[in-house]
């Protein structure tokens, strides 16, 4: 078996290397006038035939309305209860009235579009697979690790905290809005961490901080999506559409939060369906430690454990979890399984 699979994958790796060395990504293929999707991006249709798509069911996704949270303290407990219920059942919810101006959300989407529409020669300056760089543009983070088909997407990633990048490290096309958007996201993220900590009734809340089917490898993600849609969350073995709603932000629980809450909060599997309308733009803010913080050990919070609820996961560092997550790739399985006791 091994002798037949290995040569095939070596051939695939050589094809991927050729693609990677263009530094033009998926958009480069489109700009070149490609008429058919290259085999590197072919996914097996039967993998998705088992999933039942229930159509536009945005109303089923929990919605957390943050209006007047600063002026009406009595609303806080009700919001905490809503966050707790959504995190334990769905692992997904939307937030509205989050105090981030619509103009900021729209300009952020425009900034992402401006970058990806830059001349390839300009974008190549930022194309890299060096995870230590403040700003990195590439296609498929698991290009050389995953033995599954690639995703039809290009991305850029920027570390905004705890150390703000130097202005010259961020492309002019999206520099100002990226820094502005990051400030708004940190404020929202801090509020969400407070809600999640209170939902756990954790006496030490500081302990909780530190497009193929997948779950995210962070504590939680805040996602801004455009009008095109395609995002789906897996709920009770059904795929539920997360229909775009103007001004709303999508929040999903990540693997690390499921690990430290010992399965109380759910890291929901999700995916994005391809379509012939586009390009689709989405901006995800991943809340997890960076730098030295990635070397701290995380395990189930001790205050949540008991004889009836023993630890279900072994401890890991964020760096270790990330390394395993990247090496495994987006293969449709959860990286959490590797850490189960």
TrEMBL record:
Q: Which UniProt keywords apply?
A: Iron, Metal-binding, Oxidoreductase
Q: Where is the Fe2OG dioxygenase domain positioned along the sequence?
A: 192-289
Task: Read off the PROSITE patterns from this record.
Answer: FE2OG_OXY (PS51471)
- Domain of life, per UniProt, equals Eukaryota
UniProt KW Iron keyword: yes
One Pfam family name is: DIOX_N
A GO molecular function annotation here is: metal ion binding
InterPro entries (UniProt xref): DIOX_N, IPNS-like_FE2OG_OXY, IPNS-like_sf, Oxoglu/Fe-dep_dioxygenase_dom
Q: Which family does it belong to?
A: Belongs to the iron/ascorbate-dependent oxidoreductase family.
Q: Show the PANTHER family listed in the entry.
A: OXIDOREDUCTASE, 2OG-FE II OXYGENASE FAMILY PROTEIN (PTHR10209), OXYGENASE FAMILY OXIDOREDUCTASE, PUTATIVE-RELATED (PTHR10209:SF846)
Write down what this protein is called. Answer: Fe2OG dioxygenase domain-containing protein
Q: Which organism is it from?
A: Flemingia macrophylla
